[in-house]
Amino acid sequence: MKNKKPHNLLNIRKKREFSFDPRIVNPVKIEKTVIFSADEQIRNSTTVLREKMPWIDVLLYSNPLKVSSYISDEATAFLLDDTAISLVDTEKIRKNNKDSVIILLTSNEYIQRSHPSAAEEAFPFTSKADFVFAVNRKELTPDKIVSAAIRAGEDFINIHKYSKVRRYIFLIIDDEPRWFSQFLPVLYNIIGQRADVRITRTYEETLEFLFGVKQKKYTYP
Q1: DSSP string for 80-109
Q2: CA atoms within 13 A on the CB side of 112
Q3: What would the mean pLDDT of 72-85 be, rounded to a whole number?
Q4: How far is 32 from 140, CA to CA, in rounded Å?
Q5: pLDDT for residue 164
């Protein structure tokens, strides 16, 4: 009886693994995060990010000119507070960084509780952000929010630029940053991975997303 050739377990695993085409949720990953804030809690959240997202290069800046002039070929999230977003040139940031998302971590109670149009009228700088998340020194501390904010930012980049097919799993309809600031960390902790998440903050935006219907945005008097 001839000796049988030993099985190459590695080759067997390679053949069996991914016998189907794997679903890539987000083809583009956020590789860098720029934090510009005078708030100590926001600045200290770099420790949490490095623990929870070790693949991301976290950069802490103190000069608005450097933030405005930042250039990267990699997907980048910019975390700014209420003062910081007024000091940087967000248009320049978007122009110099093809895959970027600007996230406002606001401690302003009015912004946290107001309809977006009312918040933008009272505080125009809110319109510069792609996302607005509520933070405070109690239940919504930055260290609880930042990782979910970056995941939502990554979803934002992929959904708007790289998803060929609409694959939204979660549709969150909420006009207050306070509530989805609480919800998103819970969501991401449950699913344990990135998911396609779409947040709509107005009735008009929800109609446009669901049915392609465009309406004039209502402005509070």
Answers
A1: E-HHHHHHS-HHHHHHH-SSEEEEEEE--H
A2: 16
A3: 97
A4: 23
A5: 65
- CB half-sphere exposure, 88, CA atoms < 13 A: 32
Give this prediction's pTM.
0.78
Q: In this structure, what token pair is assigned to residue 53?
A: 């997202």
Alpha-helical regions (H) of the chain: 9-16, 40-44, 46-52, 64-68, 82-87, 90-96, 109-113, 116-122, 142-161, 177-191, 203-211
Is 3.20.20.390 the CATH number for 30-211?
no
Closest by alpha carbon to 185, among 129, 155, 146?
A: 146
Predicted local distance difference test score (pLDDT) of residue 16: 43
147 secondary structure, DSSP code: H
* Cβ neighbours of residue 123 closer than 8 Å, sequence gap 6 or more: 82, 108, 110, 111
Bridge partners (DSSP) of residue 170 are 197
CA distance 115 to 201: 8
DSSP state of 126: G
Q: How many CB atoms lie within 10 A of CB 66?
A: 13
Taking the C-alpha atoms of residue 71 and residue 94, their distance in angstroms, rounded to an integer, is 9
Q: Is the pLDDT of residue 4 over 80?
A: no
* Domain residue extents for the chain: 30-211
